[in-house]
TrEMBL record:
<keyword id="KW-1133">Transmembrane helix</keyword>
<feature type="transmembrane region" description="Helical">
    <location>
        <begin position="36"/>
        <end position="53"/>
    </location>
</feature>
<dbReference type="Pfam" id="PF13387">
    <property type="entry name" value="Lnb_N"/>
</dbReference>
<keyword id="KW-0472">Membrane</keyword>
<protein>
    <recommendedName>
        <fullName>Lnb N-terminal periplasmic domain-containing protein</fullName>
    </recommendedName>
</protein>
<feature type="transmembrane region" description="Helical">
    <location>
        <begin position="6"/>
        <end position="24"/>
    </location>
</feature>
<dbReference type="InterPro" id="IPR025178">
    <property type="entry name" value="Lnb_N"/>
</dbReference>
<feature type="domain" description="Lnb N-terminal periplasmic">
    <location>
        <begin position="119"/>
        <end position="275"/>
    </location>
</feature>
<keyword id="KW-0812">Transmembrane</keyword>
């Protein structure tokens, strides 16, 4: 009886996982994928019905098919850098360091007028790491308070700001699905950009809500963090990988990079619920200048300042007005 229940649970899990894997990855049109996923569920249901009547052959047959599906998933569903990408992720950032000089290729600096009307600009930029002066965490919200897109902006004392963002590398006509993010639907990208691009497009074009937090780090840690982003970006150029909603997204990768600098950072649910990252950073003592996370959140809310800035050259200065620690 216990064996029967265990096999039944395995069949149930295999039926659900397989249907979603086929729906998101089968090389077919949407209607055909739906039919194939439904047939897979029907096979799983037949296996469960057989177990209920004491027949093991349907479950054994389903198990064999599941092994074949797993083999296809392992060998046939592979990440690639050679696809038809959305324009905003069409290129990948690459970097090289010579002493204190960081040279980045494919820094995105688009001029956005609407979601579909923009001037694409991919630039090569040079930064002097000896002039690195600040690290800011940016959170952009589009609905639920627990979920935000996390970015890190590195400031230099010559007035430059460099944003790194862990992005879903979407293909043309892709729509985002959090469930699809568990099923190798998207590749992963680490993208460098200007603040006038990646921050301004979110507040002024997409209608998202932006917050900025000045992060205080040990001496030398900011440089190590920046170079960790560059190294990750270079690795993705050499060896693409998939985005994962849980294990390879904007906040979990921020944690992995930061943990290289301050080993032993405590795990916390707020690393998954990225909208609550400020409370996590406040607990670590990385936010200074305000009496509570709520006070810091209120002062760091820059959406209105961003939308009131007509000249992109004033954007970085204006969004930091009144932010604690700046």
């Amino acid at each position: 009886m216990i064996a029967q229940i265990a096999i039944g649970l395995a069949v149930l899990a295999g039926a659900g996982w397989g249907a979603l894997a086929l729906w998101f990855q089968a090389p077919l049109g949407p209607r055909a994928r739906g039919v194939v996923a439904a047939l897979w569920l029907a096979l799983g249901a037949a296996a469960l019905a057989g177990l209920a009547w004491g027949a093991w052959r349907p479950a054994a047959f389903f198990g064999a098919l599941l092994l074949g599906l797993l083999a296809w998933w392992k060998l046939g569903v592979r990440p690639s850098n050679e696809r038809q990408w959305m324009p905003e992720v069409a290129r990948q950032t690459q970097g090289a360091v010579d002493g204190d000089i960081l040279t980045l290729r494919n820094v995105r600096n688009f001029e956005w007028r609407s979601r579909t009307d923009f001037d694409p600009r991919w630039e090569t930029r040079v930064y002097d790491l000896s002039r690195l002066a600040s690290v800011d965490l940016l959170l952009s919200y589009w609905g639920r308070p627990a979920v935000a897109h996390a970015m890190v902006s590195f400031g230099f004392d010559d007035g430059q700001y460099l944003v790194f963002s862990v992005e879903i590398r979407r293909k043309l006509n892709d729509t985002f699905s959090e469930i699809g993010g568990f099923f190798r639907r998207y590749e992963l990208a680490v993208l460098a950009s200007s603040e006038e691009d990646s921050l301004r497009v979110r507040t002024n074009v997409r209608g998202e809500d932006g917050y900025l937090y000045r992060v205080h780090m040990p001496e030398g840690a900011a440089r190590k963090l920046l170079l960790s982003y560059v190294d990750t970006a270079n690795q993705l150029v050499r060896q693409p990988r998939f985005y994962n909603t849980l294990t390879a997204n904007c906040t979990t990768i921020v944690y992995r990079l930061a943990d290289q600098i301050v080993p032993g950072l405590p795990m916390d649910y707020r690393l998954l619920l990225s909208g609550y990252l400020p409370e996590y950073l406040y607990r670590l003592g990385a936010l200074e200048g305000a009496d509570s996370p709520q006070a810091y959140r209120q002062a760091g809310h820059y959406t209105d300042r961003a939308r009131a800035t007509a000249d992109a050259a004033d954007f970085s200065r204006n969004i930091r007005r009144g932010v604690p620690g700046v």
